[in-house]
């Protein structure tokens, strides 16, 4: 069964390769689903009649390692842990970073570079290293705490509203996916991923142009400047596409569990959910500030 998510396809192919013993032919992706052999075929880790089991790895004297498949609980626990880490760092930066004086600027610059680097790398290769994902969570926590405090000073209560809105949309998307109102079909995935890539490119272009004093107007970077209709439309599009990416994340979790992907890939799924929640929070925070000006 082929997933509609190209990154998940690569993840599951790697998972199959990791779990197939050395010396055995690797199944083709798209053949009978991994972990569900055809009638009469021996299951993974079991010997067929009259066939000796091949050790993994084949080095003499070594014992085959046991690779535990990921579960839904693995993803939930890791996602909650990453959210707690991000929130704790955000709270610390909210309180302490303004007191660091000249050190605050370099810290935020490092956080921006770390966030951009990890996010860019994740587009080309699944990230399953918890240390790298923790760096992303810490970097985003620094940015979230600092920027949220600035917005809160201008618009009282806006941070709580953005947090409630973020998790509210997440819950709605989970319900819609649970009851199959929205499905991660190949066409759906192409539209969402293509739209997200386009919005990110436009946002990056707008930021570069604004840095040189020529803001095209897609994003209003000031906290209390006048806002036209274009930033509102652009931010609304970001919120809609950001919400729809959760459908792909839910599908990645479901298909990863069904395919028996190794436990380490729970980190990849948790990272996707964390990144989606943070992206959505930024867009909602900005939209609320537009509407309250």
TrEMBL record:
Looking at the record's lineage, which domain of life comes first? Bacteria
Q: Which residues cross the membrane?
A: 75-97, 103-124, 131-151, 157-179, 191-212, 232-253, 265-284
Transmembrane helix: present as a keyword of the record?
Answer: yes
**What's this protein's name?**
Membrane protein
Q: Which UniProt keywords apply?
A: Membrane, Transmembrane, Transmembrane helix
Q: Where is this region: Disordered?
A: 17-36
Q: Which organism is it from?
A: Actinocatenispora rupis
Recorded hits in InterPro entries, A to Z, give: BaxI_1-like
């Amino acid at each position: 069964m082929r997933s509609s998510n190209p990154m998940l396809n690569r993840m599951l192919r790697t998972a199959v390769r990791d779990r197939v013993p050395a010396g055995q032919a690797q199944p083709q992706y798209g053949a009978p689903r991994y972990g569900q052999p055809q009638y009469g075929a021996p299951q993974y880790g079991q010997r067929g009649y009259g066939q000796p089991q091949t050790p993994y790895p084949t080095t003499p004297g070594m014992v085959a390692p046991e690779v535990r498949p990921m579960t839904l609980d693995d993803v939930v626990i890791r996602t909650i842990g990453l959210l707690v880490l991000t929130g704790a760092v955000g709270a610390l930066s909210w309180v302490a970073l303004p007191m660091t004086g000249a050190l605050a600027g370099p810290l935020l610059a490092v956080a921006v570079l770390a966030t951009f680097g990890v996010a860019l790398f994740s587009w080309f290769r699944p990230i399953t290293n918890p240390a790298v994902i923790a760096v992303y969570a810490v970097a985003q926590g620094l940015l979230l705490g600092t920027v949220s405090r600035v917005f809160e000073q201008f618009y009282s209560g806006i941070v709580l509203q953005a947090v409630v809105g973020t998790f509210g949309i997440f819950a709605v998307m989970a319900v819609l996916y649970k009851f199959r109102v929205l499905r991660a079909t190949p066409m759906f995935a192409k539209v969402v991923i293509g739209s997200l890539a386009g919005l990110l490119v436009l946002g990056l272009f707008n930021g570069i142009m604004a840095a040189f004093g020529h803001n095209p107007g897609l994003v209003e970077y000031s906290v209390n400047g006048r806002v036209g209709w274009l930033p509102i439309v652009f931010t609304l599009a970001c919120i809609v596409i950001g919400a729809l990416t959760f459908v792909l994340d839910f599908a990645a979790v479901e298909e990863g569990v069904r395919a028996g992907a190794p436990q380490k890939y729970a980190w990849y799924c948790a990272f996707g959910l964390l990144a989606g929640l943070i992206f959505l929070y930024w867009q909602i925070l900005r939209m609320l500030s537009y509407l309250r000006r």
